[in-house]
Amino acid sequence: MRKVSTVAVTDAVPAKTNTRGRVLFASLIGTTIEFYDFYAYATASVLVFPTLFFPNATNINAILSAFAIFGVAFIARPLGSILFGHYGDKLGRKGTLVASLLTMGLATFLIGFLPAAQGSWVILAPLFLVILRFAQGLALGGEWSGAALVATENAPANKRAIYGTFPQLGAPLGFIIANTIFVLLQNNLTAEEFLAWGWRVPFWFSIVMVAIGLWVRLRLVESASFQKVLAQDKVSKSPVKDTFRFHWRAVVAGTFIMFATYVLFYLMTSFTLTYGTAPATPEQAAAAAAKAGKAFNPEGFVPGLGIARPEFLTMLIIGVVFFAIFTLISGPLSEKFGRRKFLLVVTALIVVFGLTWTTMFGPGKTPAMVGLIIGMSLMGSTFGPMAAILPELFPTNVRYTGSAIAYNLSSVIGAAPASFVAIALWQAGGGNTVWVGVYLAAAGVATLIALLMTRETRDKEFENNLA
After folding, report:
1. What are the distances in angstroms from CA 181 to CA 177, 306, 416?
2. Helix ranges restricted to H, 279-417
3. Residue 320: which CATH number?
4. Which PANTHER family does the entry mention (predicted)?
């Protein structure tokens, strides 16, 4: 690792700075939009995409195909972190964030115009869905780190974790907005209307949110930390190369620190939506198959909870409210006790939660609601400090690249396979989800090891921490 620079800053630094309100709102609105777009796809991949884009596949194969495309974004995210991280560390955070927002917004908007996989579109429709999903992942790969830096690099002393909760808050807010729209549409449209055009509305609506986000972000100025990198002529010529050459240990640490967070979140959202709304009895499954015009094979039946989709979406939204609350709570707590100590406790609780999974998600709505609340509360507690701890692992001139690569490499090993693996374990267990919980607990153990091997970063200075 390079020696930390102690050179005094004598170059003039622009006097214009960001106000607290502008910093917090810009970091919050951008991630809210990005995660809204991301979750709109995630919800549609459960509710309509298996039917629209894989009409000839069996029910479970159609779901798995939709989740496979869902996972394409996670393959794109590390590429996005390299692309946007490179320009974010060389040219600045502001322009890079605007580019990532535009990429995500346009890709999401265009998904709303894709035709169903019929006739001449039987191959092209899924293909274009893959391309647009890849673009979503590329954009999100650069979005999170930039938004986290806008918040933390502009934060006052001893408040980085508190400011850092605002870009994290965009995740539950984006989820709540996206799924509330889906619930309203499902409750006010017939099944035929929703399948024909209703599902497109959330994707079209994203363009309005993108316009608001662009207006806010174009008013930002660069942080003092990055301005000093420019003033000292410390801009990295090759941020990606320098990151892996001098800070590869931080990349590995950050990747596994984030690992349990990713697995938990996608089990709590995508998997539980699939499992919770799957028919609980063969009779329910036969009725659902008949309604969809498909044959029912009792030999392949695997029971779920049998909760109606609009009702389960509402339960998810309630759970995500706790996600938001505990995201905000986690900032002050990790500032008081330290990121490492706080996350060690939360991750240990995630392991316990995984080992008691079947108790939480057994038959009945009440246990499922309790499980969603506990899981989402843990999610907020572990997710909130990430916008502080991951950037703190890296020096200013590779901070965008380093934190983005760690965050998004974790998405490849944690988020991308989570729903697919959980569904496979559920299927293999014949409806028993005990191994889904073991999978979550194992992810928690991996994160505990990474935290134990990492030093506390709370008191790390940002201003002159140059590679």
Report:
1. 6, 22, 25
2. 282-291, 309-337, 339-355, 357-360, 365-383, 386-392, 399-410
3. 1.20.1250.20
4. INNER MEMBRANE METABOLITE TRANSPORT PROTEIN YHJE, SHIKIMATE TRANSPORTER
Give the domain extent around 312: 20-452
Q: With respect to residue 272, please indicate whether it lies within any of the assigned structural domains.
A: yes
Tokens 């274009």 — which residue?
Answer: 128
**Residue type, position 229, single letter:** V
Structure token pair of residue 106: 């346009």
User: Residue 344, CB half-sphere, CA atoms under 13 Å: how many?
Assistant: 13
433 with 353: CB under 8 angstroms? no
Pairwise CA distance, residues 311 & 87, whole Å:
44
Distance (Å, rounded) from C-alpha 17 to C-alpha 141?
Answer: 26
Cα–Cα distance, 142 to 82 (Å, whole number): 8
Whether 97 is in a domain gets the answer yes
DSSP code at position 298: G
At 445, the amino acid letter reads V
Q: Is residue 458 part of a domain?
A: no
- Taking the C-alpha atoms of residue 438 and residue 248, their distance in angstroms, rounded to an integer, is 29
Q: How many Cβ atoms are within 10 Å of 38's Cβ, its own excluded? A: 24
The per-residue pLDDT string of the chain (467 residues; one tens digit each, 9 = 90 and over) reads 444 333 334 444 444 566 778 788 888 887 888 778 778 887 788 788 888 888 877 776 777 787 778 778 878 888 988 898 888 888 877 888 888 888 988 998 999 999 988 888 888 988 999 999 899 889 888 888 888 888 888 888 788 999 999 999 988 998 889 888 988 998 899 888 998 899 999 999 988 888 888 888 887 777 777 777 777 777 788 888 999 999 999 999 999 999 999 999 989 988 998 899 888 888 887 887 777 667 777 777 888 898 988 899 889 999 999 999 999 999 999 999 999 999 999 999 999 999 999 988 878 899 999 999 999 999 999 999 999 999 999 988 889 899 999 998 998 899 878 988 998 899 888 888 999 999 999 999 999 999 999 999 888 776 533 33
If one counts the domains in the chain, the total is 1
The H helix count followed by the E strand count for the chain is 22, 0
Largest separation between any pair of C-alpha atoms in the chain: 76
In a domain, 12, yes or no: no
pTM (2 d.p.): 0.82
Residues 6+ apart with CB under 8 A from 238: none
